[in-house]
Amino acid sequence: MSENNTGLKKMMIILSKATLDSVYAAFVLANGARMEGYEAEMFFTFFGLEAVHKKKMNDLRFATVGNPAMPFPTMIGGLPGMEAMATKMMKKEMAKLDLPEVPEFLEILSASGVRLWACKLAADMFKYKKEDLYEEIEAIITVGDFYARGSEPGTQMLFI
């Protein structure tokens, strides 16, 4: 762990999308925070809940439409099979870098001390129960509860 001279003590990451690029960005940032000696918590809201939904976490995809970083026009990204092809290609590249699959990455995060929370509003809206979610989700809480967890000095919140 590196020495912390920044005043940062805790990273709180809010994940609102379950595209693989968003999920991995959030996971890498949370893992990096723990590796640097900071506390880390994640709050999964709206479609971000799919990243921790037991039946959906293995089927996340890369977005090919509306993603300005894709190297082809949006119209092409909307063609049948493009999203599946892009997802397959990106997963292959991620495997070359030895990035774990979503369930394994969640295990790593949890084992390292990252605290995982689900959003009550989103869970209610999608009719998800705690038993539908990854086992290490500590609770389904309100956004106010999550904000209260980040009220101490030295806390940074990121929205992905």
Any overview of this molecule?
The chain is of the alpha/beta class and 160 residues long. It has a domain of 111 residues: Hypothetical Protein Ychn, Chain: A (3-Layer(aba) Sandwich), CATH 3.40.1260. It is 38% helix and 17% strand. The chain has a 5-stranded parallel β-sheet. Helix 1 packs parallel to helix 4. It starts with 9 loop residues before the first strand and ends with a strand.
The major pleated sheet works out as: 5 strands, parallel
- Overall helicity: 25-40%
Based on the structure given, which CATH architecture of the domain at 13-63 and 100-159 is correct? 3-Layer(aba) Sandwich
Number of strand elements: 5
Determine the CATH topology of the domain at 13-63 and 100-159: Hypothetical Protein Ychn, Chain: A
Strand content: 15-25%
Distance between the termini: 25 Å
Low-confidence stretches: none
Spatial order of the strands forming the largest sheet: 4-3-2-1-5
Oligomer: single chain
Measured on Cα atoms, how large is the radius of gyration?
16 Å
Outline type: globular
List the secondary-structure elements in sequence, H or E: EHEHHHEHEHE
CATH superfamily of the domain at 13-63 and 100-159: DsrEFH-like
Separate helix tally: 6
**Mean of all residue-level pLDDT scores:** 88
- Name of the CATH first level of the domain at 13-63 and 100-159: Alpha Beta
- Supply the helix-strand structural class: alpha/beta
